[in-house]
Specification:
mainly beta, 2 domains, 13-stranded mixed β-sheet, 11-stranded parallel β-sheet, elongated
Length: 366
Amino acid sequence: MKTPFAILFKILVTVISVITFSTNAFAQKDTTSLIHAGLIYPISSNGQRAAEYTNRFSLHAIAGLSRNETGAAVAGAANVIKKEAKGTQIAGAANLIGGSAHGAQIAGAVNIIGQSAQGMQIAGFSNVIKERAEGAQIAGFMNLTGTSNSVQIAGFTNIVKDSAQGAQVAGFLNKAGNTNAQISGFMNIAKKVKGIQLAGLINIADSSDYPIALFNFIKNGEKSITFTLDESMTGIASFRSGGRVLYGIAGVGYNLKDNDKPLYAVEAGLGAHIGLAPQFRINVEAVSQSLSDFDGGHFFKNSIRILPAYKAGSRFEIFAGPTVNYATHERGEEFSFVNKYLWKNKKSEDFQGVYIGFNVGVQFIL
């Protein structure tokens, strides 16, 4: 089944074909022009034969049509170039190039290139390159290309059909084959990721050693269901998922002390595996935890955990270790989890303190 992006790409390429290649009936020979100026085809210095011309410089109030551009082309709405474009093309709405582009394309809405591009594309809405993009792409909404070897920055999504040798940065989604790095506000999808894969919520990959997200679905990585208990007697059931090194933590739980009101817990964080031996490793974790009675009482804790772990068989792991914790809550609330603090802030409106704790647990590796 074709994706919406593939359908959009075919529609955009069809637009180029209809607009530009329909002029082939007028073409008799390839001619050159130093300057091509006008209003809109065919009201220009090259007239009805504009599609036959290779121009050094083009300037159109609305839209210009040419065979090739070798210098600069500026149009109030659109530059339509049947074959090759070199230099810089600037348009209020769209640059439509049937062949390859060498240089920079700047458009208020879209840059569409039928083959490859060497240079930079900047568009208010979208950059679409059928084959290879060998320069940076910056778009307000979407970058879509066959392969990419430079950075892609988009307000919503970057889509690369094959490999992306540069970095992808998007407000919502990045998708590529093999890639170096991905950063998105919501989700990253790739095959093999060499560097960091950072997402607001989800990473998906065949291979990614350094995913950073709450949920990481890495084919050759590790996923587990974990049960932990800390010095405050808070039990947490969490889902840990990641790659060979980094993993995400997301959990919910309950405080087991005899409190006046029940305290429910949520935690989220990032961890790293440090391998020592086939059955031994150290898990280092940075975690934020919140306890609440859902009636105004809140206890917040940020922790650094150093957890030596022993793997029993291929599925079970047990671990225990010290933690350094920074806790805060309203001074009127009574949270008697800890008696001794390494440091307290006695002047702040909310209570703040640092103390040493512990964390123990067992996990079932999926």
